[in-house]
């Protein structure tokens, strides 16, 4: 899942509900970005071509959300869902932006297990997507596959979220609630899965094409994946967290795409969303440096138009682009190791393939 970005207010962000809030401390950003061509990327040639090629899709509308699913007693829950309370000291300490938690070798293994489970569950969900499937059915699969592995579906009851995963279709940027809507030919959907395994969260998301998606949509999905992988390639001990956003924006901008700024990646571990805030756009925020043992997510949301503004539905979660252009997202949970980075939610041999892998095969 993505996390609300509050810029210089990192301490507050670490505990705030992940929905759109008025931006605080934006003066520093304004001053630091004036005169550097920062802001709305001008739509280049590729962007204009893409705009012409974009199909007219019906806007996504809310469907009926079914009752919350049960989780058996024997499954360990996170504290927000009625599990054992976190010790106040560890909770408080992990809120300071300069205090990014360094995982012990045992904790790293815990994160590896959580990442592996999240990947398996996400793959199962992606493989079930067909024209006519409801997002509710996808949620049921995520729920069952998570429980089958002795894990808890982290989004369930997180700040009141009613379902076990997020399903974000077309212009939905993130946090779509699975409901009765049937998937249509030409839809593109992000499925965001987080699993809580023996006290650790693993978080990943992926795009799935439903039926036949137009070329402009396919390009958006592919470039979004490339943005994530480029961002991962800058991760290693001593790298600046702010390098991540530069890598993403540099790749997205020539296509005339906008990088969503209202949500960011996040530190993750025993706590679902914590420091650091991982910004996906070019920035000079003092986000700190990566150290061996840091675990965090990168999850860029890339908009098909240069527009970066979002709005949230009255359900308090579903966030859409203001201009209705489609938005794509991929997410991995990462661990910084000696000499580089380990993708904890990496694909395995049985994973759901990227669409261009099957097309080119
Ligand atoms: Co996330």
TrEMBL record:
<dbReference type="GO" id="GO:0046872">
    <property type="term" value="F:metal ion binding"/>
</dbReference>
<dbReference type="InterPro" id="IPR002467">
    <property type="entry name" value="Pept_M24A_MAP1"/>
</dbReference>
<keyword id="KW-0031">Aminopeptidase</keyword>
<dbReference type="GO" id="GO:0070006">
    <property type="term" value="F:metalloaminopeptidase activity"/>
</dbReference>
<feature type="binding site">
    <location>
        <position position="299"/>
    </location>
    <ligand>
        <name>a divalent metal cation 2</name>
    </ligand>
</feature>
<feature type="binding site">
    <location>
        <position position="175"/>
    </location>
    <ligand>
        <name>substrate</name>
    </ligand>
</feature>
<comment type="similarity">
    <text>Belongs to the peptidase M24A family. Methionine aminopeptidase type 1 subfamily.</text>
</comment>
<dbReference type="Pfam" id="PF00557">
    <property type="entry name" value="Peptidase_M24"/>
</dbReference>
<feature type="binding site">
    <location>
        <position position="266"/>
    </location>
    <ligand>
        <name>a divalent metal cation 2</name>
    </ligand>
</feature>
<feature type="binding site">
    <location>
        <position position="331"/>
    </location>
    <ligand>
        <name>a divalent metal cation 1</name>
    </ligand>
</feature>
<feature type="domain" description="Peptidase M24">
    <location>
        <begin position="110"/>
        <end position="337"/>
    </location>
</feature>
<dbReference type="InterPro" id="IPR001714">
    <property type="entry name" value="Pept_M24_MAP"/>
</dbReference>
<dbReference type="InterPro" id="IPR000994">
    <property type="entry name" value="Pept_M24"/>
</dbReference>
<dbReference type="InterPro" id="IPR036005">
    <property type="entry name" value="Creatinase/aminopeptidase-like"/>
</dbReference>
<keyword id="KW-0378">Hydrolase</keyword>
<dbReference type="GO" id="GO:0005829">
    <property type="term" value="C:cytosol"/>
</dbReference>
<feature type="binding site">
    <location>
        <position position="203"/>
    </location>
    <ligand>
        <name>a divalent metal cation 2</name>
    </ligand>
</feature>
<feature type="region of interest" description="Disordered">
    <location>
        <begin position="38"/>
        <end position="66"/>
    </location>
</feature>
<protein>
    <recommendedName>
        <fullName>Methionine aminopeptidase</fullName>
        <ecNumber>3.4.11.18</ecNumber>
    </recommendedName>
</protein>
<dbReference type="GO" id="GO:0006508">
    <property type="term" value="P:proteolysis"/>
</dbReference>
<keyword id="KW-0479">Metal-binding</keyword>
<feature type="binding site">
    <location>
        <position position="192"/>
    </location>
    <ligand>
        <name>a divalent metal cation 1</name>
    </ligand>
</feature>
<feature type="compositionally biased region" description="Basic and acidic residues">
    <location>
        <begin position="46"/>
        <end position="59"/>
    </location>
</feature>
<feature type="binding site">
    <location>
        <position position="273"/>
    </location>
    <ligand>
        <name>substrate</name>
    </ligand>
</feature>
<feature type="binding site">
    <location>
        <position position="203"/>
    </location>
    <ligand>
        <name>a divalent metal cation 1</name>
    </ligand>
</feature>
<feature type="binding site">
    <location>
        <position position="331"/>
    </location>
    <ligand>
        <name>a divalent metal cation 2</name>
    </ligand>
</feature>
<keyword id="KW-0645">Protease</keyword>
<dbReference type="GO" id="GO:0004239">
    <property type="term" value="F:initiator methionyl aminopeptidase activity"/>
</dbReference>
<comment type="function">
    <text>Cotranslationally removes the N-terminal methionine from nascent proteins. The N-terminal methionine is often cleaved when the second residue in the primary sequence is small and uncharged (Met-Ala-, Cys, Gly, Pro, Ser, Thr, or Val).</text>
</comment>
């Amino acid at each position: 899942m993505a996390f609300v970005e509050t810029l210089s207010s990192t301490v507050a962000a670490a505990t705030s509900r992940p929905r759109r809030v008025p931006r605080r401390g934006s003066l520093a950003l304004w001053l630091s970005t004036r005169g550097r061509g920062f802001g709305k990327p001008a739509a280049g040639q590729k962007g204009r071509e893409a705009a012409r090629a974009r199909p007219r899709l019906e806007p996504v509308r809310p469907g009926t959300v079914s009752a919350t699913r049960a989780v058996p007693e024997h499954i360990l829950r996170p504290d927000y869902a009625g599990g054992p309370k976190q010790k106040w000291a560890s909770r408080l300490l992990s809120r300071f932006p300069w205090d990014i938690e360094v995982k012990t070798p045992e904790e790293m293994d815990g994160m590896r297990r959580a990442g592996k489970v999240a990947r398996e569950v996400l793959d199962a969900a992606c493989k079930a997507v067909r024209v006519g499937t409801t997002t509710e059915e996808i949620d049921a699969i995520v729920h069952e596959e998570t429980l089958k592995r002795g894990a808890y579906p982290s989004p369930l009851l997180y700040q009141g979220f009613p379902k076990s995963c997020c399903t974000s279709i077309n212009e939905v940027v993130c946090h779509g609630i699975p409901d009765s809507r049937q998937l249509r030919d030409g839809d593109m959907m992000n499925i965001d899965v987080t699993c809580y395994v023996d006290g650790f969260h693993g978080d990943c998301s992926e795009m799935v094409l439903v039926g036949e998606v137009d070329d402009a949509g396919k390009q958006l999905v592919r470039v979004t994946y490339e943005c994530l992988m480029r961002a991962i390639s800058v991760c290693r001990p001593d790298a600046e967290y702010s390098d991540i956003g530069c890598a993403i924006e540099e790749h997205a901008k020539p296509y005339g795409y906008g990088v969503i700024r209202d949500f960011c990646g996040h530190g993750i571990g025993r706590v679902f969303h914590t420091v650091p805030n991982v910004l996906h756009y070019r920035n000079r925020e003092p986000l700190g440096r990566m150290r061996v043992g840091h675990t965090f997510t990168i999850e860029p949301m890339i908009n098909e138009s240069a527009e970066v503004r979002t709005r949230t539905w009255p359900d308090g979660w579903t966030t859409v682009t203001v201009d209705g252009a489609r938005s794509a997202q991929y997410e991995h949970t990462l661990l910084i190791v000696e000499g580089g980075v380990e993708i904890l939610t990496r694909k395995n041999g049985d994973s759901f393939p990227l669409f261009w892998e099957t097309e080119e095969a």
